[in-house]
Protein 1
Amino acid sequence: MRPKKTRWVSCLPGERCFKPVCRPLDKVKGVYLTLDEFEALRLADLEGLKQVDAAKRLKISRPTFSRIVSAARHKIADGLVNIKAIRIEGGCCKVTKKRR
């Protein structure tokens, strides 16, 4: 298997774990969202960028971006529907320096 290409993110999450209020963290299962999946969701759903433009920001191909955002949406849906904690960690990412 080919090694993953480094993805460039411009926004780190303020919180790394979101959990249901109704259950303690040690009693709830979790899903893991990588930093590149978090950034893909932010670019596509929050900023409303087209996949081509969002892929350029992450410095990856459009099909790769599509796979990443699809996996992220699946994990978020799983966490919400099945009452799981959503943890954000890992991935082969580097943070870009913001331009002034």
Protein 2
Amino acid sequence: MTFSFMVLVVGAIAIGLFRRRNRNLLPAQLARQLPEFIDAVVLLMFSGSTPAQSLIAAPTWLEPPLREIVADVSQQLLRGNRLSDCVASLRQLIGSPAFALVDALLSADRDGQSIANTLDRLSNESRMQRRRQLDADIRRLPVRLTFPLVCCILPSFVMLGVVPMIATALVHLNH
């Protein structure tokens, strides 16, 4: 009875940690996907699209979960909602990493002027952010590979390489 109770407790703790980890992953995933979103909007704006048309076409090049968020905004735009309301909802859904893009789109819609310089600067900053994120991921890679190395590769090396040599040496010592 106590063993089943311990299994239940360990299972509940594992489920809680898994849920907490998944909750923390969503903002990180959105921040990681944001440079692609910015580049898609910049490309569409430089090709002559309006900010609304850019947001409607952008989900095509995005991956989940950002695709669903931008697709919801584009559906709101297609239903006739104002761009400022839809972009403001982007600010709430994505969070602080999207503030610069949202502000640029709102100023382009409100003022009606070209935001080419702002979008170009924003695109450069997003590329720099993507590069920094990749550098951080590369630095974390050896730490992530330590567990498979220690738990899988080294034991197999011992079983396939060292144990047969020791067994052969022991057999020759006995003769």
Protein 3
Amino acid sequence: MAEDINADELVILTTVDNAYLNYRKEDQQTIVKVTVDQLKQYLNEGHFVEGSMKPKIEAAIEFTEKTGNSTIITSLKNAAKLNDGVGTIVYN
């Protein structure tokens, strides 16, 4: 829908503040800013769980690739702070 209405940005609200590599593992890493190509690599490496973060990552990739606009993945509690650079920001 975001593509259909020519949205300037896609915001995906979830229960966590960011997308992560190695989520809930000792070596968990926060993804802050990431290109579509890097995010695709992480996806192909199996970093995101089906039915959890994976569909959000796929939507972010699709929107950003097709529109050239950024996507933010963050928690609902961060929704009022989107202009402050919160969450995982996906860009081309």
